[in-house]
Fold each of these.
Amino acid sequence: NAGVTQTPKFQVLKTGQSMTLQCAQDMNHNSMYWYRQDPGMGLRLIYYSASEGTTDKGEVPNGYNVSRLNKREFSLRLESAAPSQTSVYFCASSDWGASEAFFGQGTRLTVV
Amino acid sequence: AQSVSQHNHHVILSEAASLELGCNYSYGGTVNLFWYVQYPGQHLQLLLKYFSGDPLVKGIKGFEAEFIKSKFSFNLRKPSVQWSDTAEYFCALRESNTGKLIFGQGTTLQVKP
């Protein structure tokens, strides 16, 4: 059982380049999330998808777009990367209510 | 706006000391509350959760938390910490109306052997 799989694990981008972070879950969860983790700031929600076909902005959506391709997959796109987007990105999935969220291993992104 | 606040940013304890990490939230609706732990170089894992019923919740590895509705708090406790508890701890809230999962800033716990 793979759980939540994120690719890539590491990435270095030049300012202005674009890229897509991929996330897939095999637990049949309805909800999926993208977070960024920065020192001293905890995990900040970028985008959230409550179910297939729906997405909603989180706390820090600027500079990002998402696609909930199907129930399993939720991708995060940086159209024009900026140094401020250097961070560790985590994808997670869960059901509603008291359901635990399961996290991927993270993507360490550096924008130079 | 809904928020989760963790007041202790960095805690240093000796082994066998007692631990209490503060968590306060701001949300008017029904809450589901969680504590997650992140060991160095790893992803987040669930320690415990509260959704209803007994406000004292027990989790893995001897951790427990108490939900105090009147104080909007969900503090994490452990009677006696071990060196292996060195990690970052996150409090989180799930909004009942949207399902969004919001995290606090995290507390780094360092346990000295």
Amino acid sequence: EVQLAESGGGLIQPGGSLRLSCSVSGFTVSSNFMSWVRQAPGKGLEWVSGISSGGSTYYADSVKGRSTISSDNSKNILYFQLNSLRVEDTALYYCAGDGTNFLHWGQGALVTVSS
Amino acid sequence: DIHMTQSPSTLSASVGDRVAITCRASQSVTPWVAWYQQKPGKAPNLLIYKASSLAGGVPSRFSGSESGTEFTLTISSLQPDDFASYYCQQYSSFPLTFGGGTKVEIK
């Protein structure tokens, strides 16, 4: 059975940083395209970042330059680091895979940016 | 960036109705469009990929079609479990982009 489980969310002050983790079971992170997709409260879905099986990384303009997506292949975990947090980064962050259309999703990690 | 314009944003319908949701891409993305269903408090669920291919376990009342840069999700006979939000997504090029969503409500 495929399972994706995000962790690392919480309440963070503007200007701070976060590191989200997504622990995956049932398929291999390093063999698939993996993404982070976020959803602000009451709003639609926004893809923010992805990493290919070859290690190429992709970012939405909204997070480019202040974010890093990576994976630990030995642990089958996907990560997302976001710096210089803004109020508008408040959202439920989902990890999703495999491929560039998203068959598998986690339950989401809530990130709230507020002073 | 490729913009996906989804319509309508809200749709009121009754059980048994045939409903259609449309996404128009700002440039060619054929056939790389997916459709998702999302219920409140839950992660999205893949319904359709590659414009018209039904994802595993998805009921056959859901179908996808395309005409140029316009993509349509059709539910042939709306069921109580189908009242939810729906999103299109293009995966032709980066950044991957979603439509704004359609909320299907009970009439």
